[in-house]
Structure formats: C-alpha cells, structure tokens
Amino acid sequence: MNHHLKFDPFTLLHVTVVGAGGTGSHLVVLLTELHKCIQALGGQGLMVTVFDPDEVSETNVLRQNYHRQDIGRNKAVTLVSRINLACGTGWLARPSIYTGSELVVRGQYSAATPHILFTCTDQNAARRQIGAAFGRSGKGYWIDTGNTRTTGQVLLSEPTSKEPHLPSPLKEYGELLADDDQDAPSCSALEALTRQDLMVNREVAVKAAGLLWRLLRNGAVNHRGLIVNVQDGITLPKPIEAGMVPAYAAPPVGLIPVEVPPPAPVPAPKRRASRRRATPPGAAA
C-alpha cells in the first residue's frame, strides 16, 4: 500500500526545521544533499528555514554538528550561515522558538505554510502546539523525529482532519506526548555520551532525510516511518495501513519517472510439422 506525493516536486519546496540540536543539526546538512539532487533533476530545490533559540554549548560539540569555535553562538544562525556560505543557498535562520503562529497571517492560514515541517525537538509541549497549529492549516507534511538513548523514530504524517490521511504524532503517540518531563541539559562529556549514544541522532536524521528523498524521487512511499535501534542494528518500517490512503486514479509523479517494464515479447507461432511421408530409397518419386 503506497502513499502518493501530494504536491509538485519540481516547484520550490519550503521546508521548516524546528530544532537544530542533536538530530536537527545533522538533518539540515543532509537537506543540502537533497537540494543539489533536486536541482540536478530539473527542480527548483529547497528553501529551508531553521528555528532554534539556543546557543551552542561545550557538550553540544560532542554529538551535534558544531565545533568548538561555535560555542556561544546561536545554533540556527551558526548552521545556516555555514551552509549558505558553502552551498550558495539563501536559507533562513530564526533564533527563536517556533510555535506555529508563523503559519497565520491576519487571522488566516498563510499560503507560505511549508510543504514539509520537521520537528527535531525533545519538548512534547512544543510538539502538541506545533502539531495543532500545523494541522489546522490543512496543508503539507509533518515529519516528526525523536530518540531515546539508543533508539529513534521517524514518522511521516498529514496533519489534517480530512480522511483518509497519514495520522500525526499527536494521534500515533498521544499518550507519550502528553508527558512534559524533560531531562536536564548534560553538564559533562561523560554524562552527554552516557545519556545518548553518539550515533543515534545521526541515524535518525539519515532516516528522516531518506524518507523525504524517496517520497520526492519516486512520488510515493510504501511506509510512513521508521524505528531504529543503533545498539542492535535494527531498522523497522512503519507500514501504511488500510484507510490511510485514498484509491488513487493516476500513477505517482516524482522527480524520476517510474520505469515501466517493456511488454513481454510475443512468442512466434510454432511451425506445424509436415505430414508428408519420406520417399524410400530407390523408389520412384
């Protein structure tokens, strides 16, 4: 069962990334790879906006995509400035909290609602607020990411009330997202690396970027998320279930056309064997 992409992948795709920490800092860099490949295939690429109010700390340098020279600088500004300088992009950094109110202009939901919203935050209250606002807009995709010490999850959703649709994290993980308990920031290298595996955020970022890439490349995906376990080396897809997608009348449209296999060759008709008797040797013809 497949979900078909619901917008033109060749248009300029607006992407919002909420959180430039453990997962978000790696994800934003991976989005530069998608941007280049989309443009190489004839699309306009990505226009990314990154939100994060926090500054880079000494322990952030260990697991997040920053360096010692970045300590004390805002995460979003540091990351986006580096990318714009290296890639010639004009992506935007917002050193502030994203609440979803940015979707609203004069009381109405703006046409600038992003095509894709990534949440890379460990704050469940923020997820609930963002999901509610993004859901009321009725547009785009919400790709949520999260992780524990050695596991992580990626979930693709359509935050809309119209059926059928891919359910949002608010519905999929409602009980878990109701808990607002948070761990205190790590204050030492040992604590930081004990609380979370060095590679778990990177694995989650790779899975999130890969899921979006397959959706854009093929125009469809056959799963709506992934669960990863870096300790055991396990990756499990989340299947698309009955009732989550409509009955599509046309094939999906992605960046690379789906290859239609050539028709099977028609076998040549068998020649019928002649029933004429062979003439015995020495007999008259």
From TrEMBL:
**Which InterPro entries does the record associate with it?**
PRTRC_ThiF, ThiF_NAD_FAD-bd, Ubiquitin-activating_enz
* Compositional bias annotation for Basic residues: 269-278
Looking up Pfam families in the UniProt record yields: ThiF
Q: Where is the THIF-type NAD/FAD binding fold domain?
A: 14-160
What name does the UniProt record give this protein?
A: PRTRC system ThiF family protein
Where does the record place the region Disordered?
261-285
Q: Which organism is it from?
A: Deinococcus multiflagellatus
Superkingdom, according to UniProt?
Bacteria
